[in-house]
Automatic annotation (TrEMBL):
<dbReference type="InterPro" id="IPR000601">
    <property type="entry name" value="PKD_dom"/>
</dbReference>
<feature type="domain" description="PKD">
    <location>
        <begin position="387"/>
        <end position="452"/>
    </location>
</feature>
<feature type="domain" description="PKD">
    <location>
        <begin position="334"/>
        <end position="367"/>
    </location>
</feature>
<feature type="signal peptide">
    <location>
        <begin position="1"/>
        <end position="23"/>
    </location>
</feature>
<dbReference type="InterPro" id="IPR011659">
    <property type="entry name" value="WD40"/>
</dbReference>
<protein>
    <recommendedName>
        <fullName>PKD domain-containing protein</fullName>
    </recommendedName>
</protein>
<dbReference type="InterPro" id="IPR013783">
    <property type="entry name" value="Ig-like_fold"/>
</dbReference>
<dbReference type="InterPro" id="IPR035986">
    <property type="entry name" value="PKD_dom_sf"/>
</dbReference>
<dbReference type="Pfam" id="PF07676">
    <property type="entry name" value="PD40"/>
</dbReference>
<dbReference type="Pfam" id="PF18911">
    <property type="entry name" value="PKD_4"/>
</dbReference>
<keyword id="KW-0732">Signal</keyword>
Length: 697
């Protein structure tokens, strides 16, 4: 029997060891401090010298204080130093000269521990104290250390007999004082306020606002050396009672609060957290053991919040030149050179770079007889840059129970020396490393988070950056195949899942028609077209403004750094796809394209049929109602007639002229003619079609 149980235990140990070898479930390691007692309360610690100061109602022989109806001592301030790797076991009264017959503390310290700001009752001169007296409000007091003795406490100028002012926290530079008050005009019971020191005077208290304060109680603020605010609240969504939250101020605004994970927070009251500048270790208070006690914690896996979504790097572009020199196609042709060894013939060309770099793009007119450059039409020099971001490389869909590889090696943060990579797989499992693997037991959509930490700078600060990516997990291969089929690209050029290469979609149907651009008609200046963003070639600086309902207008110097503009437009392109209004317009343009009938005979007469005019008027209405929309008018013709291309060019230009004459700006219209061949290279004799396409929102 003993042997049997021994085997079972060994098996369980092996399973558990293998489970935690590749991940763990807790962000923090928590332990109770050795000086806490079961019968007394200890709470609200503050860093002081090489230890902490905290509040406790433990009995002391140094001073006779009043007690509560429950025969509990009132609170005094105690100090306990660090001994070895932990706090000592024998706290002592911080300073007898600061003790009163009433509640003393919590406290905070500044100016190299030579200044204390602490809370106590405003009236402390009474020899008797009625514990039920709620008129003797709490206030803040300041004392200075003179040698080894603290000076007589001075009251805070905003103390009041009408409301409490308590629980102070001072910023590292001493310029900001956070505290708690139930003064009128707040959001709830207790709110957190801020005063700033201006000309050695504290400014009027400012409520931290609705991002921090709720209709409940917010208390026990602590501002870390890195500027992160930690506080307790029963108004924000938590696990029960008081929970600990944090937030940072960015550009003058407090960010969405972060709920600190278990085991720091629990279903009990958890409050009074203090920490080092990088939230790597510290202390907090909790009543999870029946009385208020102080616990120490160590961060094993940092929490990350307000993470960015991954921006896919875009290396594929459409190049064309709207201002062109007419050439005799019998003796010459256009040829693009993309600066990476690739050349493509044609007035318009699609090209994908293998990655970032500096490139020189040229459009040349080539003499067919000699193969030499007859004239250089266009020349661009630009640097193609990747987004500066953390990056998750993994599949988009996967099966349950299957190992999935996650890579952070494509993270591009050149100005930061990265030290650690952390993964949160959204199923309770965490892991660390630049390359990890993980499997999911249940189907669902998981929000995978990659967080990176930098090395410490000269002040000891670390930078935290994170990104997130959704991963769909299904139970059976059939569902996975269906999902991949639905997500499979149908255009001939699409970014792959890693955003770096173009997938060439194979066409198995020999009757599928493939367009090839052979001519483009317009009279603008030479430009490089990268999706929907135009780069103007000019001897002077030209600037282009991008407006988006996602981001504020951003000015981009295209000559100095066009690649940044390319990346930004790629991001806006993503939001564009989700725009329901634009999607509706694109659908209608497809219908109008199919309905439009325009013969070459009408081109010669410079007139439109009765069936074509209503369609043109609807196009006009769409363009006038959507001032940011640009339209591409493309004519697809077969190669049987050599005159077809010129007639098609006149046809598209006639449509453009019709719209321009009725109020559409010229720059919002593009015209193009395409040669049509099927995949086998055979000419299709019966296919002529017009296409209206939205090319910009």
């Amino acid at each position: 029997m003993n042997k049997f149980f021994t085997i079972i235990l060994l098996v369980l140990f092996t399973l558990i060891s293998s489970f935690f070898a590749n991940g763990q479930t807790a962000n923090y390691e928590v332990n109770s401090t050795s000086f806490c007692s079961a019968q007394d309360d200890e709470y609200s610690s503050a860093y002081y010298k090489d230890g902490i100061v905290f509040c406790s109602n433990r009995r002391t022989d140094l001073f006779v204080t009043f007690s509560t109806p429950e025969d509990k001592e009132l609170f005094n301030m105690f100090y306990v130093p660090v001994q070895g790797d932990s706090l000592g076991k024998s706290p002592a009264i911080l300073a007898t000269e600061l003790m009163t017959n009433f509640n003393d503390g919590p406290a905070c310290f500044g100016s190299n521990d030579s200044v204390i700001i602490f809370s106590r009752n405003n009236e402390v001169n009474n020899k008797k104290r009625d514990s039920k007296d709620d008129k003797n409000t709490l206030g803040l007091f300041t004392s200075h250390l003179n040698g080894i003795v603290w000076s007589n406490p001075e009251p805070f100028e905003y103390n009041s007999l009408d409301h409490h002012v308590t629980m102070p926290s001072l910023s590292e530079d001493g310029s900001k004082l956070f505290f708690v008050s139930d003064m009128s005009g707040g959001f709830g019971g207790l709110d957190i306020y801020l005063c700033e020191k201006i000309n050695n005077t504290w400014s009027t208290p400012q409520n931290l606002g609705a991002e921090i304060n709720t209709n409940g109680d917010e208390s026990f603020p602590f501002i870390s050396a890195s500027g992160e605010l930690f506080f307790a609240s029963d108004g924000h969504k938590g696990l029960g009672g008081l929970d600990i939250f944090s937030s940072k101020m960015i550009d003058g605004e407090w960010q969405e609060v972060l709920h600190i994970n278990t085991p720091i927070n629990s279903k009990f009251d958890d409050f009074g957290l203090i920490t080092d500048r990088n939230f790597e270790k510290g202390y907090f208070s909790s009543n999870r053991n029946a009385s208020d006690d102080i616990f120490d914690f160590k961060t094993m896996f940092p929490q990350f919040t307000n993470c960015d979504t991954i921006k896919e790097n875009q290396y594929c572009f459409l190049f064309y030149d709207e201002y062109y020199t007419p050439v005799d196609t019998a003796t010459s042709y256009y040829e693009w050179f993309f600066g990476d060894g690739v050349k493509v013939k044609g007035k318009e060309a699609e090209h994908c770079y293998v990655g970032p770099g500096k490139y020189t793009v040229e459009l040349n007119i080539i003499d067919k007889r000699t193969g030499e450059v007859f004239m250089r039409q266009t020349n661009y020099e630009f640097e193609l840059l990747d987004f500066e971001q953390a990056y998750i490389s993994c599949v988009d869909e996967a099966l349950t129970k299957n190992q999935i590889n996650f890579e952070a090696s494509k993270t591009n943060l050149p100005s930061i020396n990265l030290e650690k990579y952390f993964w949160d797989f959204d199923d309770g499992i965490l892991d660390e490393g630049i390359s990890v693997s993980h499997s999911y037991d249940k189907a669902g959509v998981y929000n995978v988070v990659l967080g990176v930490l930098s090395e410490k700078d000269s002040l000891g600060n670390r930078k935290k950056i994170c990104v997130e990516k959704n991963l769909a997990v299904v139970k059976n291969p059939t569902a996975l195949m269906r999902m991949k089929s639905e997500n499979k690209p149908h255009n001939k050029n699409n970014p792959s899942t890693d955003g770096n290469f173009v997938v060439q979609q194979e066409l198995y149907d020999p009757f599928i028609i493939q367009p090839k651009l052979i001519h483009i008609a317009s009279d603008a200046r030479g430009i490089l077209k990268a999706f929907d963003l135009v780069f103007f070639e000019s001897f002077e600086k030209e600037k282009y403004f991008i407006n988006s309902n996602i981001e504020e207008s951003e000015e981009i110097d295209l000559n100095s750094n066009p690649a940044k503009a390319l990346a930004l437009e790629s991001l806006l392109n993503s939001s564009r796809k989700s725009n329901a209004k634009l999607h509706s317009i694109e659908k209608e343009l497809q219908v109008l394209s199919a309905q439009f009938q325009y013969s070459f005979i009408e081109v010669e007469k410079q007139s439109f049929s009765e069936s074509a005019t209503p369609i043109l008027n609807r196009l006009l209405e769409i363009l006038l109602s959507n001032a940011l929309l640009e339209l591409k008018i493309g004519y697809h013709v077969n190669t049987q007639s050599k005159q077809s291309f010129d007639r098609a060019g006149k046809a598209t230009q006639s449509i453009a002229d019709y719209l321009i004459e009725r109020g559409v700006e010229k720059f919002r219209l593009r015209t193009a003619v395409y040669e049509i061949t099927n995949q086998l290279g055979e000419e299709n004799k019966d296919t002529n079609s017009l296409e209206f396409k939205a090319i910009k929102e």
